[in-house]
């Protein structure tokens, strides 16, 4: 490959990942519309379904999002009564995020989403697992740059 080929769109790793991410998010949209949440809100809920009480800092680290990006998401989810934000009683500088009963109930409605997504993607499970592992390796190699 010559130097100019490096500037072609089809040779850009970033573009392939970006376009793939947008396409996957589009697959999720009809399922999440039924739940009344967006894809970024779904990611927050996935974390809360695993860990019902978490600090904003932990949530930020899990999702690779800064607090300025997370705060509006959390406010909207709190307005929907899916979570509750409150300051730590031990240290007021720490914001805690807690799932509500309504948030826990939403999990029941979301249980079929992963299977529906798998059916929507034209790859077998082994290919998807390998792709996930490869993207995790890539993320680990660049996340702290």
From TrEMBL:
Keyword Transcription regulation belongs to the record: yes
InterPro entries: HTH_MarR-typ (IPR000835), MarR/SlyA-like (IPR039422), Transc_reg_Sar_Rot_HTH (IPR055166), WH-like_DNA-bd_sf (IPR036388), WH_DNA-bd_sf (IPR036390)
Domain of life of the organism encoding this protein: Bacteria
Subcellular localization(s) per the UniProt record: Cytoplasm
Segments forming domain HTH marR-type: 10-145
GO biological process, one term: response to stress
Cellular component terms (Gene Ontology): cytoplasm
Main location: cytoplasm
PROSITE patterns, alphabetized: HTH_MARR_2
This protein's record includes keyword Transcription regulation: yes
Keyword annotations of the record: Cytoplasm, DNA-binding, Transcription, Transcription regulation
One MF annotation (Gene Ontology) recorded for this entry: DNA-binding transcription factor activity
Protein name, UniProt field: MarR family transcriptional regulator
